[in-house]
Write a structure and sequence with these properties.
The chain contains 3 helices and 6 strands. The chain is an alpha+beta fold. The longest helix has 12 residues.
Length: 110
């Protein structure tokens, strides 16, 4: 695991943070497979099935916090990203990939 003072980068999180700050989700949405699914554990929201449903969710209820990557753990079809929210709290994001696109996002809040 990277020390807390070491900046750990992750392209998806970079796109997420840029979208939170700008309100433009198009670069993040473009990385999603048309059949992508986004699910949550620990909050009563979702699931969202399909790229358009995920885009609509971000448009109607955009997050206000950015994320700081704490650790990235590679897996066979993606990775798990441990993160800290800018306003406090932590969680993990499981990212699954298929054919160069994100097919699954599962967000857990600690």
């Amino acid at each position: 695991m990277a020390a807390m003072t070491d900046p750990v980068r992750h392209d998806h999180i970079d796109r997420f943070n840029a979208a939170v700050l700008s309100g433009d989700w198009s670069a993040l949405i473009a990385t999603l497979h048309p059949d992508a699914v986004m699910t949550f554990a620990g909050v009563p929201v979702g699931p969202f099935h399909g790229r358009q449903a995920i885009a609509d969710a971000y448009a109607t209820n955009p997050p206000g916090d950015t994320m700081r990557v704490v650790e990235v753990r590679p897996g066979t079809d993606g990775e798990t990203v441990a993160f800290a929210w800018s306003r406090g709290g932590t969680g993990t994001l499981d990212i699954r990939r298929r054919a160069g696109q994100i097919i699954g996002l599962h967000i857990r809040f600690d």
